[in-house]
Amino acid sequence: MARMKKLLFITVFMYFSSLGFCGLLSVKAANQNREAVDIYIIGEVNNQGKRTMYVYKDDGGKTGKVFVTHAIAQAGGFKKAADKESVKIRRALEDGKAKIFTVDVKKILTDENAEDFAMQDGDIIFVDEKAL
């Protein structure tokens, strides 16, 4: 059931993105307490570039999360040649160094027990081409 909810969310989001309704959807929530997260997506996605995504705080002050699947959906999804099993995420650390995470997005989308990867402000997602 959880897997179906993930796939339904991503499918609906990609559909509205393709129609240009994302701006309209985010305007409705503009008055809520939110925090911007800038994420950069490059490689085998349909719309590369910077994405400003928002995490919302509930009444208790708890901040929501932006996940890698949300970011890829906002980028229009994967291209046909994308390696969905080895998505790289580069995160800058406080000491000036960077850490690279490898995420199996295909597993996140197909296994209801798989946890999505939480993104942070400034993260860079790189989707490589699948090896032939």
Compact overview of the structure:
This protein is an alpha+beta fold and 132 residues long.
Description:
The chain is α+β, with helices and mostly antiparallel strands and 132 residues long. The protein has a single domain, classed as Roll (Outer membrane lipoprotein wza fold like), CATH 3.10.560.10. Helix content is 29%, strand content 26%. It is built from 4 helices and 5 strands. It has helices spanning 2-19, 22-28, 68-74, 105-110, and strands at 34-43, 49-56, 87-92, 98-103, 124-127. A 5-stranded mixed sheet has the order 2-1-5-3-4, covered by helices on one side. A hairpin with a 5-residue loop joins strand 3 (87-92) and strand 4 (98-103). Helix 1 (2-19) packs parallel to helix 3 (68-74). The chain is globular, with a radius of gyration of 15 Å. Mean pLDDT is 81; it is low at 20-31.
The topology string of helices and strands comes to: HHEEHEEHE
| Number of separate structural domains | 1
User: Terminal Cα separation, in Å?
Assistant: 33 Å
Number of helices: 4
Report the mean per-residue pLDDT as an integer: 81
CATH superfamily: Outer membrane lipoprotein wza domain like
> What is the total tally of β strands?
5
Strand order across the largest sheet = 2-1-5-3-4
Low-confidence spans: 20-31
Looking at the overall shape, the CATH architecture is Roll
Largest sheet: 5 strands, mixed
